[in-house]
Amino acid sequence: MPQLILLRHGQSQWNLENRFTGWWDVDVTDKGVQEAREAGRLMKEKGIHPELCFTSLQTRAIKTLNLALEEMDRLWLPVEKNYRLNERHYGGLTGLNKQETREKHGDEQVHIWRRSFDTPPPPMAADSEYQMTTDPRYAGIEVPATESLKDTIARVLPYWKSRIAPELQNGKRVLISAHGNSLRALVKHLSGISDDEITGLEIPTGQPIIYELDDSLKEIERYYLSEK
Ligand SMILES: O=C(O)[C@@H](CO)OP(=O)(O)O
């Protein structure tokens, strides 16, 4: 029976500072390191043994994966990294404080930017200090100027279908370390959650989510490992 483990990165510096992050590459905090290690210890203790890993091109997800794997004595596992698992691009909001943005634009507008399904935040200015277009890790990739959750799903799912799903169908146990919104995309797809409902689903940092799947990769069971 295919098994998939989803892990959102441990607390990042900008989670702590309450800033819109998106594609900006912030590190995990000391608490984030602890959360990642704890996730690894929990997986080991509960007998979760991934054989193959996928992550984004962002430090917070890569580091979380490595810290968890270290705790599991599985740093040797193959890991594939791809920008398609990156966080949703936050456009012109990147770097701003979420509370200050609420005070300036109102709760309702900020809620729409954060949690509507298909309304993207305003685009990032070409000369923004947070531009990632010249970052070497994105060479050959068209870095978006902003993304809605719908846009994020549209970039995550082709990668799921072409690279991750075939491994699961070949019987591999797969661990994905990624981000709040790229993981929402996967949960929406796997659990058949509607456009309206998915925006209300919050994925906590450092909490392994286990999917037991049938051979066609439909959900049999989904649970937080800490609750088993
Ligand atoms: O800032 C971000 O990139 C994301 C995840 O931390 O925030 P939000 O909760 O608004 O999707």
String of helices and strands: EHHEHEHHHEHHEE
Discrete helix count: 8
Hetero groups bound? 2-phosphoglyceric acid
Named CATH topology of one domain? Rossmann fold
For the largest sheet, list the strands in their spatial order. Answer: 3-2-4-1-5-6
Q: Roughly how much helix do the residues carry, as a percent range?
A: 25-40%
Structural class: alpha/beta
Can you tell me the overall shape? globular
In CATH terms, the superfamily of one domain is Phosphoglycerate mutase-like
Number of strands: 6
Point out poorly predicted stretches.
none
Residues in β-strands, percent: 5-15%
Mean of the pLDDT scores? 97
Radius of gyration: 17 Å
Distance between the termini: 18 Å
Which CATH top level class of one domain fits?
Alpha Beta
In the CATH classification, which architecture of one domain applies?
3-Layer(aba) Sandwich
Q: What can be said about the biggest beta sheet?
A: 6 strands, mixed
